[in-house]
């Protein structure tokens, strides 16, 4: 069995199918890890959801910020944005089945390997101050709320840049928002682990006193897989942890990339987007 980790689809369904063909992917034999943001901006968000859901246990996807935005809009907790490409999902006859499936996706997946140690995938990365065990526990807190009868209220209060700094004594919606922001929005942080939400481009856009989260050391040594940051183009320069950037900007006209977790080999197909 080969496991491939793929970066943000963001509605690039044609490229997703082309990449699976290039990999000779067989769901009876192989497995996919998808780094979140299955939807939005590209033209095939509905097809992407259907394709991944149809793979069943052969595919594992984590939630990204665009996936959570889709859920918030669908549940009446937020409004569509001018650049959203989600309308086909809302009009689909199977929308509720797709949305329920998406809402049950995790924020973090973890696999322990004798050869490679802990392999962890989230959408945006892992805060250096969080051990993998703690991160898994915190992800579970937010996932439990998303699966509860209070998920609508949670989605309604999910947006916001505060708290920007994690504290173990956070509670209520501040705690949940802090968890969501780390897993789905993090790029630059400072030495204390406080997040900056303004800078979204390449490394040169770092605010004073901030650096990419992967340039800070950790006390443990997991292999961290993440998407979210297309401007990195799959690179993690000056990284002080084992980190693999998977988002290579397909929706922005670049390419869609898969990483073979066993060999480390990358396979890409060119974008078909303008």
From TrEMBL:
Q: Which organism is it from?
A: Halomonas ventosae
The protein's name? bis(5'-nucleosyl)-tetraphosphatase (symmetrical)
From what superkingdom does this record's organism come? Bacteria
EC no.? 3.6.1.41
What keywords does the record list, in alphabetical order? Hydrolase
Q: Which family does it belong to?
A: Belongs to the Ap4A hydrolase family.
Question: In what residue span(s) does the Calcineurin-like phosphoesterase domain sit?
Answer: 1-127
Name the job this protein performs. Hydrolyzes diadenosine 5',5'''-P1,P4-tetraphosphate to yield ADP.
Please name the CDD domains in this protein's record.
MPP_ApaH (cd07422)
